[in-house]
């Protein structure tokens, strides 16, 4: 069991929000991409970074993505696909955040683009529960860049083990641990709950 943190920081997609860009990408590629290759695309492809950092429009990214992966799909249809991969908050996510907010300040730290942020902020009914929101396309920093963790520390006025962080990508978790945070690899909502219980925080 870890020491009790002073703030809880959550990734959104894959942790609190049911985002699945892996299975559709495998399907669109005709099976040329396996699950790990599809995950790596989102983490490491330069165009994905440009999208998350607000350096290209979602439509520009959709066209580049279709080209790079040799998908027989128009940019407009690809953009519609991208939006459809966000299917809302996991059942129970809002109630969990409400429960945790009685004891901790809460923050969101997400690699997210403007199109998906519009969905999250207008449709998924979670954002109002966070005391701080760090959306990559707004702060122009992206996990797992060490600079994003320093930015969050400065904004929160806390550092190291005072911060507990939950993310579904191991690279982001490892970078947070390198910054001294208590960081947990939680893929999906049930593992998030289980981790919080195991730590005695839920």
Automatic annotation (TrEMBL):
Top-level lineage group: Bacteria
Query: Pfam families given for it?
Result: Hydrolase
Family annotation (Gene3D superfamilies)? HAD superfamily/HAD-like, Putative phosphatase, domain 2
**Which InterPro entries would you find in this protein's record?**
HAD-like_sf, HAD-SF_hydro_IA, HAD_sf, PGP-like_dom2
What is the protein name stated in its UniProt record? Haloacid dehalogenase
């Amino acid at each position: 069991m870890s020491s009790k943190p002073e703030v809880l920081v959550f990734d959104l997609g894959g942790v609190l929000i049911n985002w699945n860009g892996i299975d559709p990408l495998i399907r669109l590629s005709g099976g040329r991409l396996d699950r790990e290759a599809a995950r790596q695309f989102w983490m490491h492809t330069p165009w994905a970074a440009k999208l998350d950092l607000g350096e290209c429009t979602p439509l520009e990214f959709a066209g580049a993505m279709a080209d790079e992966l040799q998908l027989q799909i128009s940019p407009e249809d690809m953009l519609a696909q991208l939006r459809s991969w966000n299917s809302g908050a996991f059942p129970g996510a809002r109630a969990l955040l409400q429960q945790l907010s009685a004891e901790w300040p809460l923050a969101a730290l997400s690699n997210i683009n403007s199109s998906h942020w519009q969905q999250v902020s207008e449709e998924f009914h979670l954002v109002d529960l966070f005391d701080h929101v760090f959306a990559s396309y707004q702060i122009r920093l992206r996990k797992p860049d060490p600079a994003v963790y320093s930015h969050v520390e400065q904004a929160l006025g806390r550092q190291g083990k005072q911060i507990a962080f939950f993310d579904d990508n191991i690279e982001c978790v490892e970078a947070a641990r390198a910054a001294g945070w208590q960081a947990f690899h939680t893929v999906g909502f049930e593992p998030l709950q289980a981790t919080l219980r195991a730590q005695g925080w839920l």
